[in-house]
Design goal:
The protein is α+β, with helices and mostly antiparallel strands. The protein is built from eight helices and twelve strands. The chain has two domains: 207 residues, Aminohydrolase, N-terminal nucleophile (Ntn) domain (Glutamine Phosphoribosylpyrophosphate, subunit 1, domain 1); 62 residues, no CATH class. The strands form three sheets. The chain has a six-stranded antiparallel beta sheet with strand order 7-8-1-2-9-10, with helices on one face. A four-stranded antiparallel beta sheet has the order 3-4-5-6, with helices on one face. Strands 11-12 form a two-stranded antiparallel ribbon.
Length: 282
């Protein structure tokens, strides 16, 4: 007889209707939780599937949401069609921010969920219900901040409240927004995963900061005008790094090498994140 390891997990599925973003964040004593639990599509919704997870809940649930069904109806349809539903756990947020959570009767204690405006929080094999409460309360108290940062804060608060009873191993955060991903040609704004690490939330936060530095957006009004002094400074630093030619050639070449190309647009103005990175290297 084949046995399966439960995806002993806590997660939060959420949206920010103002920014047009949907996302999922999760942590588990399970290898590569980000490959199983989180699913999201902009203007459609987001789903977390866990606890002896049924991976079909992800694509099938998004298909139902795409048809215009609400979160409650999607959760009902997915679980009613699944003979293994009593071992499953599910969170859904739809296009309007309505939320649903489901915990089967055979999920390992502590298991349960909580919903509110724009979010569904759930977990299984937890120290206590305090973990889910921490997810919910942290999300509710952080309105107005970027969705990805809110989700990461939720994970940290949940872990501090007890977390997975078996410990930590992996974590993930997924955020989507229409045409807001890489080069504005992708809907995936953030898809970061820590597959196996003794402190996965710390590592997830580290790579999120790196992702934000490389691919985040500084408002154009905060960019700096490149006057003669700053132009000389940029040129000298790039020459010290081994680049040659006019600044118009050197800066894009350096940015492409260091993966800052999304933050460089000509040389008349410079993103302060780019300037700081260049100065740190020289």
């Amino acid at each position: 007889m084949t046995t399966r390891t439960p995806v002993a997990t806590y997660s939060i599925v959420a949206c920010d209707l103002g920014s047009g973003q949907w996302g999922v964040a999760t942590q588990s004593k399970f290898l590569a939780v980000g490959s199983v639990v989180p699913w999201a599509e902009p203007q459609v919704g987001a789903i977390a599937t866990q606890s002896y997870a049924n991976p079909r809940y992800g694509p099938d649930g998004l298909a139902l949401l795409r048809q215009g069904l609400g979160a409650d109806e999607v959760a009902t349809r997915l679980t009613e069609a699944d003979e293994g539903r009593e071992q499953r756990q599910l969170g859904v947020v739809d296009a309007q921010g309505r939320a649903a959570t489901f915990t089967g009767s055979e999920c390992h204690d502590w298991a349960g969920g909580r919903t509110g405006e724009g979010y569904a929080a759930q977990g299984n094999i937890l120290i206590s219900g305090d973990t889910v409460d921490a997810l919910a309360e942290t999300f509710e108290s952080s309105a107005g901040r970027p969705l990805a940062e809110r989700l990461l804060d939720c994970l940290d608060a949940a872990q501090a409240a007890g977390g997975d009873r078996r410990g930590q191993q992996s974590a993930a955060v997924l955020v989507v927004e229409k045409d807001a991903g890489y080069a504005q040609l992708s809907d995936v704004v953030i898809d970061l995963r820590v597959d196996d690490h003794p402190r996965p939330l710390e590592e997830l936060r580290r790579i999120y900061r790196l992702h934000d530095a490389l691919f985040g957006r500084t408002p154009k009004e905060q960019w700096l005008d490149v006057d003669d002094a700053l132009r000389t400074d940029l040129t000298q630093r790039l020459v010290r790094l081994g680049y040659e030619g006019p600044l118009e050639q050197m800066l894009p070449a350096w940015a492409g090498t260091e993966n800052y190309e999304m933050r460089v647009e000509g040389v008349e103005r410079v993103d302060p994140v780019v300037l700081e990175a260049l100065r740190e290297m020289t």
